[in-house]
UniProtKB/TrEMBL annotation:
The keyword Iron does not apply. The keyword Calcium does not apply. GO terms for biological process: carotenoid biosynthetic process. It holds the Pfam family SQS_PSY. Keywords: Transferase. It comes from the Bacteria. This is Phytoene synthase. CDD domains: Trans_IPPS_HH (cd00683). GO terms for molecular function: geranylgeranyl diphosphate synthase activity; squalene synthase [NAD(P)H] activity. The lineage of its organism: Bacteria, Pseudomonadati, Pseudomonadota, Gammaproteobacteria, Thiotrichales. InterPro entries: Isoprenoid_synthase_dom_sf (IPR008949), Squ/phyt_synthse (IPR002060), Squalene/phytoene_synthase_CS (IPR019845), Trans_IPPS_bact-type (IPR044843), Trans_IPPS_HH (IPR033904).
Amino acid sequence: METQALNPLQVLRNHGKTFYFASHLLGKTEALRCARLYAFCRYIDDIADESADKAWADQQLADIYQQIEQRQAHDRYAADFLALAAECKFSPQPALELIKGVRSDLQHQQLRDEQALMHYCYRVAGTVGVMICGVLGMRDPTALPFAIDLGIAMQLTNIARDIKEDAESGRVYLPVQLIGDVQPIAISEPDAFMRAYLKIGIACVLDKAEEYYRSAEHGLGFLPWRSRLAILVASRLYRAIGLRLCRQQLAFWRGRTVVPVSEKLLHAAKACGEFITRPVYHQRSHPHQAELHRTLQGLFGTDSLQRHGDGGYAPSGSGV
């Protein structure tokens, strides 16, 4: 597995180009911590994606889950993750939800409805938003729902961008409720009718992503200013994938949509300009829209938990 042979910054540079681009706006300590978190998440993902033996992969993930749950790790990446959580004083609990989400891909079935889609996006990406808050030193639990929203928005963008690639791997993430019961082969080799039909589903997913991107930006004020700018740029660069896909008429059958460097620079420059001129990025007064977490009731860090005073963080100074 390539991830095991590289240091965290190399993993981020090779596999997380958008995040690597934005990491240059962070301080060195924060950038390295984010890279360590990314390397752990990528490692978990690679176990599921790169193994031909799904039973072995599931057992590996179950073992790592147990190590993190018990706070005793012999796996290199699990140990570094626990060290990072202790160093930054955040709970490892979101990583357990992440592993649940990744394990679900090993026995993948087309998601049934919006709730299943949101749960999946929360587990594989919203949890990462929660952990990023910890890595960046954000201690206010009120911010967690906004961080979850950014992760969900990015995962919805991934689903829209990778629909053909996922179908070629036997996976369909657009739910039955949205597009009906569709076999992967119908997506990987679509006829004219299926192309038009799926474009409607992709448009719906990207519209949903926009709701979560907008919400996430209202939570930026909880972050230190330098981290605030880096996350805004990362958000805008990821959002640009969906915008470019729309400009390409949602032609998913042509392969993965890639945003060229020149366009990334333009989006980054625009984000920096708005960061300076728009007060909303420096305020904490905007309430989170609880409706966005309607299907996520009771999950770690979501609006439902936050309203009950449980932001999901360990007390300051805790060694968990």
